[in-house]
Amino acid sequence: SQKSFIQWVYTLYTKSKASVTTNKITFPKLQTPLSPLLFAIFVEPLAADVRQNSVIKGIHSSISEHKINLYADDILLYLDESQSSLEEVFNLINSFSKLSGYSINWSKSISSNLNELIKLNLDPIASVKINYLFSMIPLKPPTQRFKRLDSAITKFYARNKKPKISLSTLQKNINEGGLEAPNFMHYYLANQILYLTEWLKPKDYYNTWLEIEQLDYKHIKLSDLLFITTTLKCHNCFNNPLIASTLTAWWKTLDIMNIQLKTSMLSPIWHNPHFRNRKNRPI
């Protein structure tokens, strides 16, 4: 019952020794397992208002309209007619903030520039959260940032002296003479191609981001993309930067493993840029 749930929450946090105060409102320490659930309950009224507001226009698919996604304390908005929709979103947030004390860090809020998203999260960067960032940020960080990470690791192993062993050697397995030093490019690739498992075999529950990604591939299933060669780059759907980034990571992984992607029984025929008619157009 509601009463017993409140009693359990009270019991768990009665002797809590750490807390975070924001806008004069004290929240329990973020490390406790119950904190994300409490925050989800706290922020859901705002999400419900966004979904039910007819002035706010989202992205339409064949099944539904997507307006908002919540992940921990992050909010992701999918908006059409951005001027009027944004104004209404701001009004809702301001009203919600006055009632709840909740506020948004606007300095870390992005309207459309995905490259700016990378810059805010990866500069400066802490290697301790690198896998989380690689899994959450949909685009590949600039090559220069990988070089900075490699430089930091090299200095660590060399104790800030001139390195006597190359990082590529240190990254090898111990039985190959290395120390299994982290390879951040491989970390990035591993996190990116993890999403391919969702393309191949979607879970039973409804997945919003899969439906949104499928919107740009009206004639090709996401599960078929893995079996199309790099000729897919000439397809209009490759203009989607998120899917293009995932596929590029997939092709890079195959290259590292010396695996050549060839046409197979799993390769689709229709709308596959690799198969062309007499007019040199995809079938």
Plain-language structure description:
- InterPro entries: RT_dom.
- It comes from Gouania willdenowi.
- A hairpin with a 2-residue loop joins strand 5 (68-71) and strand 6.
- The chain has helices at 2-13, 35-52, 82-100, 114-122, 130-136, 143-157, 167-170, 184-193, 196-200, 208-214, 241-256; strands at 19-22, 25-28, 59-60, 65-66, 68-71, 74-77.
- The longest helix is centred in the first third of the chain and has 19 residues, at 82-100.
- Helix 5 runs parallel beside helix 8 (184-193).
- By secondary structure, it is mostly helical.
- The termini are far apart.
Mean pLDDT: 77
Low-pLDDT runs of 5+ residues are none
Helix content: 40-55%
What is the count of β-strands? 6
Outline type: globular
Classify the beta-strand content into a percent band.
Answer: 5-15%
Strand order of the largest sheet: 1-2
Structural class: mainly alpha
How many separate helices?
A: 11
SSE pattern, N- to C-terminal: HEEHEEEEHHHHHHHHH
Terminal CA distance reads 59 Å
Radius of gyration: 23 Å
Largest sheet: 2 strands, antiparallel
